[in-house]
Amino acid sequence: MLKIYNTLTNQKEEFKAIEEGKISMYVCGPTVYNYIHIGNARSVVAFDTIRRYFLYRGYDVNFVSNFTDVDDKIINRANEEGISAKEVADKYIEAYYADTDALNVMRATRNTRVVETMDDIIAFVEDLIAKGFAYELDGDVYYRARRFDHYGCLSDQSIDDLREGASERVGIDSQAKKEDSVDFALWKAAKPGEPSWESPWGQGRPGWHIECSVMATKYLADTIDIHGGGHDLIFPHHENEIAQSEAKTGQPFAHYWMHNGFVTIGDDGEKMSKSLGNFVLAHDLIEKVDPQVIRFFLSSAHYRSPLKFSESSLDDARKNLEHLRIAYQNINYRLKDAVDQLADDDVALVKRDQFQVDFIEAMDDDINAPNGLTVIYQLMREINRYLEADQVSKVVLEAYRDLYLEFLGIFGVTFTEDKELLDDDIQALIEERDQARANKDYARSDAIRDQLKAEGIILDDTPQGTRWRRSE
User: Which positions carry the signal peptide feature in this UniProt record (predicted)?
Assistant: First the structure.
């Protein structure tokens, strides 16, 4: 039974899709004024992994995610760079795709942009005003938070306990004239030099929260299966989305709310964020570290748990990924001399099927990545044990390999087909192995030896140094 943790109810619940076999899923995307940092990438990878697991379980996933391309930060960046806000947004949307493609993130079924839904946003706000949930003051439009009976249901807060102004301030004067301090902006009157659009309330642009309500209901439905995002979006962003959407449609906005944990950095476990200045850009890290290692690192923790970023954590991910890669290479190497079938194939295939049962059981428990990876490592060890036999079956090896790749694919890990190593590549690996041995890093030394063996390279350690030859 597939269960996921629902932030709305603070408990794990059996997942039941609105339409059998199909999932509508909306995940809040970035404000495109800069490159994404590793904390942002964690959310993207977490929901990509969740999406991939739903696909593995046979669901058709309609996955929508937005780009916020109208925002104060974008306007400020445009002024700094001397270009238009649109040029800033276009630049960093392209950069987002480059970074997430490198991390093997599936592109959304649809990526939406605020500027493309402006008419829909205006119509949505008009509807809220007509229903008495919003009011206009001097070109600004605010949502009456107290008018919505369930305000605070997602963040589990009483409206009287909510901190004043957590709802996206628009300036001291505007704050003072609001009917209530907890009311939040749906539409902002234009300021000189800012992008703006014509509306019934004059020139202006939308507030942040209204954008996602409009795009989720426009491109998916009034009620969707899953809404996701970072834990920091629970309040006020997602709380306000619920208030807006349900006030307009009269229907539940999302059946399940899923939120990923933060990436932390430093000994004190501080949240990585641009506002704190302690961030590492994915763009920069990808230039230094194999993107597949970064992806594996980001995928390896439970999506709701904090994830500590450090050099040692990345190194652990690299080593684990290398062990997984070597097992895959060893399968391909042994397939060259495998026989079609052996007498005990049925026993091995029963073991293989049990791994699948164990993996699904682990991942069905709120997409529990660490437990799922434990099963993958167990499968890897069974593969390595099987490969030690003098004679191996092609049927069994292919069955193990296919299952292995299926599991790893959910975590965004893919292995390219083997290519014969060039002499310079072999020598570089031997030199790395020599250095690892000098540093007493025997795990890395053994991993390189096994990698070369899988490629058909035999090493001979002699007093004069390591010599190599290709196996016949």
Answer: none
Would you say 271 is a known binding-site residue?
Answer: no
pLDDT in tens, 125-182: 999 999 999 999 999 999 999 999 999 999 999 888 775 434 443 444 455 579 999 9
Classify strands 22-27 and 60-67 as parallel, antiparallel or unpaired: parallel
Answer yes or no: do 356 and 271 share one domain: no
Residues 331 and 257 reside in one and the same domain:
no
User: What CATH number is associated with residue 368?
Assistant: 1.20.120.640
Q: Is 212 annotated for ligand binding? A: yes
**Domain contains 403:** yes
pLDDT-derived band at 57, boundaries 50, 70, 90: very high
The reply to whether the predicted model has a pTM over 0.85 is: yes
Average pLDDT score, the chain: 92
- Asked if residue 237 belongs to a known ligand binding site, the reply is yes
Compute how many other C-beta atoms are within 10 angstroms of the C-beta atom of residue 309.
21
Q: How many distinct structural domains can be found in the chain?
A: 3
Does a structural domain hold residue 322?
yes
DSSP state at residue 83? S
Same domain, 330 and 202: no
The DSSP line for 127-177 is: HHHHTTSEEEETTEEEE-GGGSTTTTTTTT--GGGSPTTTT----HHHHHH
The most confident of the ranges 29-38, 325-334, 461-470 is: 29-38
Instruction: Tell me which residue range forms the domain holding 429.
Output: 423-470
Whole-number Å distance between alpha carbons of 245 and 143:
11
Residue appearing with tokens 């300021």: 191
pLDDT the model gives residue 464: 59
Same domain for 134 and 267, yes or no, is yes
Single-letter amino acid, residue 440 = K
Residues 168 and 275 in one domain: yes
Q: Which of 244, 271, 287 is the last residue of a domain?
A: 287
- pLDDT tens digits for 79-116? 999 999 999 999 999 999 999 999 999 999 999 999 99
Asked if residue 75 lies in contact with residue 31, where contact means CB atoms within 8 angstroms, the answer is: no
Phi, psi dihedral angles at 165 (to 5 degrees)? 80, 10
51-65, 256-270, 360-374, range with the lowest pLDDT: 256-270
